[in-house]
Structures are given as C-alpha cells and as structure tokens.
Amino acid sequence: MPQMIVNGLMLGMSYALIALGLTLIFGIMNIINFAHGQMCMIGSFIVYYLYGVLHWNFFLTLIMCILVLALVGAVFERFLFRRFLRLSLREESSMLLAIGTALLLENIALISFGEKHRGVPPLNDHIFDIAGIYIPTNRIIIFAVSIVLIIALLLFIQRTRYGLAMRALAQDREVTFLMGVDIDKISMMGFAIGASLAGVAGGLLALIFPIFSGSGGTLSIKAFIMIMIGGAGVVPGAIIGGFILGMLESIGYGLIPGSVTYLLILSAVILLLIIRPLGIMGKPGY
User: Cα–Cα distance between 142 and 27 in angstroms, integer?
Assistant: First the structure.
C-alpha cells in the first residue's frame, strides 16, 4: 500500500498540471477545451522526436513543448475562439468548436504519426529503495518538474499584474473590460499558458506512458474528471482533483482489474456530483 500511495502522489502531480491548464482556460474564457488531451499528445510527440529520436537534452525538449503549445493555444484563441465567441449567440456553439479542434488535432496526428505506439528511453535507470518503497528516477523528475511549474503558475496568478487581470477576467469579464484591461490580450495569454501546461504535462508523461495518436481522447476525459472532482474554474480544485485521480488510479490498478478501476472511479465521481454538483472547492472562480 505505501508503494501505491507514493506512485499515486507522483502521478497526481503531473495530472494536476493537465487539470490546471484546462481549468485556466475554462475560468478565463468559459470554454471547455475538448482539445486539451490532444495538446498533451502533441507534447508527448515533441519529446519523442526531439529527445527520443534526435537525442536533445530532455529539459530542453520540455521548453520546446511549452513554446510550441503556447503558440498553438494563442493561434486557437486568436483565430478560432475569439471571433466565434463574439459572433455566436449560443454558448453550446463554443463546445462544438472545441470538439472540432480536438478532432482536427487528433486526425492530423493520426495522418502524421500513424497508429504505432512509441516510447522514449528513461533519463536514468536508477531506482531508489526507501524503506521498501521503490521510486524510479524518472518519476522523481516528473514530480519535481511538475511541482516547480505548479508553484510558478500559482505565484504568477497571485503576484503579477497579468495574473491579477486573469483572476478579474474569470470573475467578471464586463467589469474587467470597463476597468481598462485588454481582455483580448489576457484571454490569449491565458489560453497559451493553459495549452503550454498541457504540452509540458504530456512531455513528462511520455517518460512513463506509451505515446500514440489516440492518447488525446483518454487524457481529455481524465482532465474533465479532475476538474469535476475539484471544481470547474478553481485553480486549487484542479490540483486536488489531479492528486485524487492519481491516487485512485494507483490504488485501483494495484488492487483490482484495470477495467473495473475506472468503472468505480466514474461511479464515485457521479456520486460526488450528486452530493456536491460544483465539486469539492465549491463555486467556480479564483
């Protein structure tokens, strides 16, 4: 059991990165980004080709994940979602656009990379033995990088002018505009940061999970589960949701068959939403 708990904590940290990116976009733009898992998938392929094939430094490839996915997010916000939100009269239409972008990225990946499952070599084969708990170096690196990025994001949101503008935009878009904030710029920045978090999370998970073009859908579902657990649009809730899902996966896969694990997880999420429809952290907002 201690081994499963440690594995769950380390997995939950990387899951929290995915959930943070999704909840940031939702909080600022009120858009459920169905392409979030596909953005994680792109990050995984960047790591595969730059680190696994071209043998770049792994941490340099993570920086490339951040830059490439930030650009993808900025392009999506500027040329797709911004205009669409201004012209559309129904909120449901943004969901259809988000689903369309998810299908677009997934099919581009399928055409470009095929269906083959890939993997990358470990950064280090060493496994630490701490009181009978075995911790591979790869998982320690994933945990450390994830916690650094999460702390950096929380400091950015809480301590910078742009972070304050994002929080204000999440609470009231119209009042934020009347206060003189460039909401288009802040929205683009929020979408870019959310996408970059997805990309770097996908790059980290490439060290322990197979990389393939169909992985985006599964990651999107996991991201939705995490924000439903923690509360949509709530940054601390995304972190809590990531840790809870990581723990449930680790303990569930260790004790019961894999197919039953997610049946129980989804059943528990439904029960939670019946009791607390807005998730653990309550109403949306920063």
Answer: 26
